[in-house]
Design a protein that fits this description.
Mean pLDDT: 83
Shape: globular
CATH topology of the largest domain: Rossmann fold
Helix content: 25-40%
Structural class: alpha/beta
CATH class of the largest domain: Alpha Beta
Number of strands: 19
Strand order of the largest sheet: 14-13-15-17-16-18-19
Number of domains: 3
Largest sheet: 7 strands, mixed
Strand content: 15-25%
Low-confidence stretches: 327-337, 347-361, 523-535
Length: 535
């Protein structure tokens, strides 16, 4: 049996997530190897039967989630829809030559019988753990102190709110909280969460510990990181478990506790299609696009749209749903409000013209161009849509598959995407409901060959391609390869697809739309500067 020393020098939250990958490989390849941990916080692995502590001799492997060739790496997190746990598992599979899949949707952390019997605190009321700050080099993740204060004021009516934090990070003290900032070891923090009712935090280590112990957790997330990469909720769970096991369904007697992940993805233009991954509120190239003032602090606008009411309502929802129990009835005293994304959308304004009806999924035909994809990928994608609504390619070229699909389908609306794109339901539903053509709009400089193809096309009406006002070079706005939604009648009117050049299919499509006068939308906004006239 080979001894593998797994090295990671990132943050404790990374170590917690890493435990899931070590469990999956060890349990799916029994007897092949034994793991030892080499991190800055080996207490994460204490009492773990799949990880040995102590000696760090053996074959050394660096655990990351960014290795080229890993289909689940973090650099693809804005498009592939997989969770953080797959990132580590994909990298370790590459390093070890394994093909393990996700076996459970939670980190693999443990408490001993002694720790179960010995809580850190003995309080006369149920308690929740929260952290009001974070790393000084990642200020774009931190919510305003005044908003934390209002949240804790609300929740303290029914619970003891225990504040934690340490490691030299910024943790503003919150009045009325039981203060344990800087007073716990990491193992004590884990034990504190294990015995708690739940956790309230930003995207940080605490949410991963809560998931490992199957605890309620409310996450103040905003739009910095993809929900699909971070959230431990039902939607993410179903998708990620089916990546490796397409037929997976929750087991009988399932007790999974989903997190309430409060995000603003799709609500602001800076996080409309993808998360921004900015690190600071102000200063440097990685600073927030829309910093706002809350009290005497500057925080990202996406976080300001999450209110103390949102957070306290999310905590109380666990009791209303019967997931958490206190021994006495908890009454939700917070009124119903709009979600953060709804508020962000309201600020941006309506995206569908008055009188335009939303297109239901039942009225859309999903076209999946899947060449190069595994059967498991196809089955996982199909699980997102109503039975029978997905047509999958069978060896055809992209244009041939599209042409045949147009001839056969009866639905009025088409949704096209292709491998390796992973569907993100909220984003796709957003686009499929838009008038005319929706997609991820890109601009492309047109070369002489492409310009000749455009001007010789049957659909050409002498309207371009338009030239950039600065350099006079022709450009085309087109839906990026991999995704678009469109009306079937519009495509037929264009006599689409144009099969003269498979390589330039997207460019020709954008140019054809321009000639037709169709509206190309990008995340709900008509493309600026080259906005096409509505037919």
């Amino acid at each position: 049996m080979e001894r593998i020393v797994v090295r990671n020098t990132q943050s404790p939250g990374d170590y917690v997530v890493l435990t899931a990958a070590l469990l999956d490989i060890d349990s799916q390849y029994p007897g092949r190897s034994c793991f030892a941990a080499d991190t800055h916080q080996d207490d994460v692995f204490r009492h773990n039967p799949h990880v040995q502590l102590g000696s760090k001799t053996g074959r050394r492997v660096v655990a990351k989630y960014s290795t080229p060739g890993n289909p689940y790496q973090i650099h693809k997190s804005n498009s592939n829809g997989n969770h953080f746990m797959w990132g580590f598992l994909g990298d370790l599979n590459l390093a070890l030559g394994t093909h393990a899949v996700l076996g459970a949707f939670r980190p693999d952390i443990y408490v001993s019988e002694e720790e179960k019997a010995r809580p850190v605190l003995n309080l006369d009321r149920p308690y929740w753990v929260f952290v009001s700050g974070g790393k000084k080099d990642f200020t774009a993740k931190i919510w305003a102190t005044s908003m934390w204060q209002e949240t804790i004021d609300r929740l303290s009516r029914d619970f003891t709110m225990v504040q934690v934090g340490g490691g030299g990070h910024a943790h503003p003290r919150i009045n009325g909280a039981y203060d344990l900032t800087g007073k716990t070891s990491f193992r004590e923090l884990m034990r504190l969460i294990y015995h708690s009712q739940g956790v309230v935090c930003i995207v940080t280590c605490l949410m991963h510990i809560a998931a490992g112990y199957n605890k309620p957790c409310v996450v103040v997330a905003g739009g910095r990181e993809p929900k699909t990469w971070e959230a431990y909720d039902e939607e993410n769970r179903l998708f990620n478990m089916r990546i490796g096991n397409p037929g997976w369904n929750p087991p009988p007697g399932d007790d999974f506790v989903p997190h309430r992940y409060l995000h603003t993805m799709g609500g602001l233009d800076c996080c409309m299609k993808t998360a921004c991954w900015k690190s600071k509120v102000i200063g440097g190239n990685m600073s927030c696009k829309y910093p706002v003032s809350v009290g005497n602090e500057r925080i990202p606008k996406c976080l300001s749209l999450i209110s103390p009411e949102d957070v306290s309502s999310a905590v109380l929802s666990y009791y209303k749903d019967g997931i958490a129990v206190t021994g006495r009835r908890i009454v939700a005293t917070v009124p119903e409000t709009k979600t953060p994304t709804e508020r962000a959308t309201a600020e941006r304004g309506p995206v569908v013209a008055p009188g335009k009806a939303t297109i239901a999924w039942t009225k859309a035909r999903v076209l999946l161009y899947s060449e190069g994809a595994s059967p498991g990928y196809v089955q996982a994608v199909e699980s997102f849509f109503p039975p029978g609504s997905v047509s999958t390619s069978k060896g055809e070229s992209r244009s041939e598959f599209l042409r045949k699909s147009l001839e056969r389908c009866e639905e009025k609306r088409l949704l096209w995407f292709e491998y390796p794109l992973i569907p993100v339901p909220g984003f796709l539903e957003w686009h499929v409901s838009l008038p005319s053509v929706g997609g991820i709009a890109c601009w492309k400089r047109v070369d002489s060959v492409q310009e000749s193809l455009i001007k010789s096309a049957a659909w050409y009406r002498g309207n371009g391609p338009k030239r950039h006002k600065l350099d006079g070079v022709p450009y085309v706005a087109y839906p990026r390869k991999g995704f678009f939604a469109a009306d079937k009648d519009l495509l037929k009117d264009l006599n689409w697809p144009d099969e003269r050049s498979e390589k330039d299919l997207e460019i020709l499509f954008g140019a054809a739309l321009e000639q037709r006068g169709a509206v190309l939308t990008d995340g709900g906004r008509v493309v600026e500067e080259y906005a096409l006239e509505r037919a």
